[in-house]
Design a protein that fits this description.
The protein is mainly beta and 303 residues long. The chain contains one helix and 25 strands. The strands form five sheets. Strands 1, 13, 14, 17, 18, 19, 20, 21, 22 and 23 form a ten-stranded antiparallel sheet that branches. Strands 2-3-4-11-6-9-12 form a seven-stranded antiparallel sheet, with no helix packed on it. The protein binds manganese (II) ion. Belongs to the pirin family.
């Protein structure tokens, strides 16, 4: 087993998106190879309705998957496949845009006026960019939760973990999407298969990620597997941690414990041509999508 180094830690940045929704972006619209197969991660936790209620009115997607995970409040949604409904606390919407979908996502918040959730974009390989659009709505009750002896709890949204399998299936990038809660002071090692690209996103509490790569600005400690390792001090809330190659990570929870997403997937390793909500391989494919949006042929009529 080899420990994955922490290549980078950074705070999510304030960003305005949709019709005027305040959110924090951990990554996106920069170097798409960095976290391939993932393109973007937004944290849309807000405490005031005026910061989210304008929402994300009708817009297109092609060539990607968008994954919405709601922690608190509800999101009303509708799309060109005819799906409509509301996502509630703990629910996941996994939308495979494929060759094209139009949808809208309108956050409604909870009775206290808060709205908490995340959106992740996963890329599709060229062979599946023009696949039929697909929509998987997963309610909180269908997401398995597993608790270990030390009190660590993991919600398994996709992929397999500790013998549980998440309910979302058929995804090209073979993602593993985990919501991990660790009690104060617990230290734990998580296996992540070598072929995966991986990141963590801390959204409550604090943690340190044990790092064998000896970066600067870390605390020294001599106790993991008999080797001298470094523990990177982390600031906690809204922090992205990008891991290098290896097959495990070790997390040390802080005094208040920690809650984070641990997300990994198989890199696609293809050229990326990206314009707003449309992500293809070439500029020509992007221009084709724009032409279809203009002339009204972007969405294939239902048969
Ligand atoms: Mn969207």
């Amino acid at each position: 087993m080899s420990l994955r180094p922490t290549l980078e830690t950074r705070r999510a940045q304030p960003t305005l998106e949709g019709a005027g929704v305040k959110l924090h972006r951990a990554f996106g619209f920069q170097d798409p190879s960095e976290l391939d197969p993932f393109l973007l991660f937004d944290d849309f936790r807000n405490e005031r309705p005026e910061d989210f209620e304008k929402g994300f009115p009708w817009h297109p997607h092609r060539g990607i998957e968008t994954i919405t995970y709601v922690l608190s409040g509800t999101v009303d949604h509708a799309d060109s496949l005819g799906n409509t409904g509301a996502l509630g606390a703990g629910d996941v919407q996994w939308m495979t845009a494929g060759r094209g979908i139009l949808h809208q996502e309108m956050p409604q918040g909870n009775p206290q006026g808060q709205m908490h959730g995340f959106q992740l974009w996963g890329n599709l390989p060229s062979a599946q960019k023009m696949t039929a659009p697909r929509y998987q709505d997963v309610t909180a009750a269908d997401i398995p939760e597993v608790t270990d002896d030390d009190g660590t709890t993991v919600r398994v949204i996709t992929g397999e973990f500790w013998g549980k399998k998440g309910p979302v299936d058929g995804i090209a990038a073979d993602p593993q999407y985990l919501d991990v809660t660790m009690p104060p002071g617990v230290r734990k090692t998580f296996r992540i298969d070598t072929y995966r690209r991986a990141f963590a996103y801390i959204f409550e509490g604090q943690a340190a990620f044990v790092d064998a790569s000896a970066p600067s600005g870390v605390l020294l400690e001599k106790e993991v597997a008999g080797q001298e390792v470094n523990i990177r001090d982390l600031s906690g809330d809204r922090t992205l941690i990008r891991f290098g190659s290896g097959d495990k990570i070790t997390v040390q929870a802080g005094e208040q414990g920690v809650r984070f997403l641990l997300i990994s997937g198989a890199p696609i390793n293809e050229p990326v041509a990206w314009h707003g909500p449309i992500v293809m391989n070439t500029q020509e494919e992007l221009m084709q999508a724009m032409r279809e949006l203009r002339n009204g042929t972007f969405i294939k009529p239902a048969h």
